[in-house]
Structure formats: C-alpha cells, structure tokens
Amino acid sequence: MNKFARHFLPLSLRVRFLLATAGVVLVLSLAYGIVALVGYSVSFDKTTFRLLRGESNLFYTLAKWENNKISVELPENLDMQSPTMTLIYDETGKLLWTQRNIPWLIKSIQPEWLKTNGFHEIETNVDATSTLLSEDHSAQEKLKEVREDDDDAEMTHSVAVNIYPATARMPQLTIVVVDTIPIELKRSYMVWSWFVYVLAANLLLVIPLLWIAAWWSLRPIEALAREVRELEDHHREMLNPETTRELTSLVRNLNQLLKSERERYNKYRTTLTDLTHSLKTPLAVLQSTLRSLRNEKMSVSKAEPVMLEQISRISQQIGYYLHRASMRGSGVLLSRELHPVAPLLDNLISALNKVYQRKGVNISMDISPEISFVGEQNDFVEVMGNVLDNACKYCLEFVEISARQTDDHLHIFVEDDGPGIPHSKRSLVFDRGQRADTLRPGQGVGLAVAREIAEQYAGQIIASDSLLGGARMEVVFGRQHPTQKEE
C-alpha cells in the first residue's frame, strides 16, 4: 500500500486540477439535480392534485340526491382525464357511493383524511394495484414486468380529498378520487431513474473536456518544465520571459538567479585562471632556484630566503585572489594605503631576473623615491608583474621602467626592444585568451588581468611604440589622492 501511495503521490497538477474540477462538477450536478427533482416532484404533486380535483368536481356535478340516496350517472362518451377511482362519503364519514367495489382500497382511506381537503398517498403491493387496473391491458403488462423484476415492489397511488358544503339540492359531501395508475408507472417517475444516467453521462462527457482544459491551461507550465530540461542539457541559457502573467514573476526571478549563478561561476573561473597565471612567476623562480641548487650554482643558505620569499608570495597571491573573488564587481577598492613604487618594482625585477636568467634580460628602472602608489599593494604587484613579465618575454635584451605622478594619477612606463605590437592588435591583446604572437607560450591572460585591475582604479593601460624599437606600455592608475573618498 505504501509503495502504491508513493508511486502516485504527490499528485501532479493535472490530476489535482481534474479531481478538483470533477468534484465541483459532481457537487453542482447533484445540487442542481436534486433541486430540479424536488421542484419537479412538488410541481408534479400539485398538478396531480389539480387533475384529481377536476375529476372530483366532475363527479359532484353529475351526482344526484334523491330519497336520501346519491347516484352518479356517467355519460357513455365521457372522456376521463386520467383513469381514477371515485368514492363519495357523507359528513360523518359514511361511504355513500363508490365507482367500483374494491375492499382493500376502501379500507385504505383513513377517517382523518375525510375531515379536510388534502392530498395523500396509498402504499400497496403489485397485486392490489392490479385489481385497480384490471381493464387496462398496457398497465397490466407494465405491472407484469415490475413483478418479474421485484415481486415485493411497492406501488404508490395518489389520493385527493375534497369537501363540498351542503346546498339546497345536496347535503355536505366528501369526494375521494384515487389515481389508479401508480406513480412508479408514470413517465414522470422515470425522471428519478434518468437522473442517475444523466449524471453519469454528464461526468463521462465533462471529464474529457476537463482533461483538454487542463492540458491547455497547464501548457505554460509544461513549456517552462521543457525549458528547464533544456537548461540542464545546456541547450538554453535563459528561460523565455514571454509567458503567462502568473508565471512572469517566477520566470523573471529564475532568470535573475541563473544570471547571478552564471556570473558567480564566471567570476570564480576567472579568478582561478588569474590565480594560476599569477603563480607562474613565483613557481618559475622556485624552479630556477631548485635547478641552481641541483647544479650546485647556489648554496642552501642563499637559496633558502629566495624560496621562502616565493612561498610567501604564493600564499599572499592565494589570499589576495580569494579576497578579490568576493569583492569582484563591487567597484570598491580593497584598501587605500600609501606604498613607495620603487621598492615594489625592485622585488618584481629581482624575481623576473631569476625567471629570465638564461635569456639574460637587462631590466633598468629610473623612478624617483617620492613616487608612491595609493591602493592595495597586491593590486599594484599584480598589474606591474604581468606587464613586466610580458615585456621580458618579448624583449630581445633590454626593458626600461620609468614613472610620472600627478595629483590624482600615477603613470608607469614599461618599454622593451622586442618586435612591438602591431596597431591592429593593440586592443586585442587586452582581451582574455588573445595574444599578438601565438608562436610563443602563453595563455593571453596577464594583460587582461592587468587592465581589469587598472580599471578598478579608474585607470587604463595604453599600448604604443617604444623608442627602443619594441612596445611601450603606459600603465595609468587613477584615484591616487591619499584623502580621496570612494564614491
């Protein structure tokens, strides 16, 4: 039982809609049907009473009172509105006249019925009813069918009692008219049986229509589910915002969530790529130092501080990029500390000299000690490290560094004697994954990272031609006033 329930629960929206709507239709059908049937029954009783009262009036008109006896002469061509049985009583309840002598019917008339006008019913069996309809062959056939289906079936006969006051020609009379056709054999009674079939047919007709209505109504949800599956299969990037009014808010929020998650994923992927790229230099220094130790070109006492410095640099870079990942896109600088530029560049030059030791790169620097950088030290090191590494990679031998500072900007110039950067590719080299020279090893990340960090300081990196014959990179840092507040 539990497995069966778990298989079908929770119910789908379509099944819920069908069950709820079918329940409403069933309740309304029952309510309307019962009201209609009750109204019809009341109307039927009133109509029957009027017909029987008409028969009663007819017999009163045809009755004659002579010698303290009553007689009724029925014309041979008289067309009765319905087959009836008439009994006439005096004011004391004594039977004066009967259309036919049927003992069981006479006993069924209750004395209290004769005291006032009214409408009553007599319950009897099929055999008794048969005596009332002895001359009606079609009714006898119907009674035979009823007897075959249920020998104990009960028959109900309508009875109308009408009291006529005494007049000059007639004493007070009570006329009782009995409908000889039982209610169960009348066509009107079949309405109760038809109601069940109509209700069943109504449900059988309505349920397919409800299914179609549910299918049409839930199409937007099915479309949304299909789009979600396409998202899972990477065949779609966003949900279609053109949907029904009820789903618009949901789709908008889901799209916002997807966009946020995609940006977060791209942010961490970019951060991981940047971190990997930033670790290349300290790892290259460690590799070069270990190679020197193995070839006994450097003693352990000299190699140890170099290796510890690079390990510390790696640790700082990891912490720095994790912090940047959480702050990326906020536009707020991590700090506004004042750092002399020359010592920071000296450390970078020392590390790059070890990396490019075999190439024999000659890095010279002409920077005044008063020139300072305002901001996060690791930002400056990351930008200049990438720019200098790019210059050392493509230079033939010489790399020159100079700087100029204004009230709110710091300009650092890095020039090399390499092949330079063609005009058509000077904007391309700052895009991720793009490089001017695809023959040399690299990932096309360094200058893109440098530009992103410089832009956080309202700065930029400008590529031009150098007097040395190669490329000239002008790194501009904005927001360099120590007392400037972030907006």
TrEMBL record:
Compartments (UniProt record): Cell inner membrane
Any single Pfam family the record assigns to this protein: HATPase_c
Catalytic activity: ATP + protein L-histidine = ADP + protein N-phospho-L-histidine
Transmembrane spans: 17-40, 194-216
HAMP domain span: 215-266
Histidine kinase domain boundaries: 274-481
GO CC list: plasma membrane
Keyword terms, alphabetized: ATP-binding, Cell inner membrane, Cell membrane, Hydrolase, Kinase, Magnesium, Membrane, Metal-binding, Nucleotide-binding, Phosphoprotein, Protein phosphatase, Transferase, Transmembrane, Transmembrane helix, Two-component regulatory system
EC identifiers of the protein: 2.7.13.3
Main location per the UniProt record: membrane
GO molecular function ontology, one term from the record: phosphorelay sensor kinase activity
The keyword Transmembrane appears for this protein: yes
Membrane topology of this protein: Multi-pass membrane protein
Broad EC category: transferase
PANTHER family: SENSOR HISTIDINE KINASE YKOH, SENSOR PROTEIN PHOQ
Protein name per the record: Virulence sensor histidine kinase PhoQ
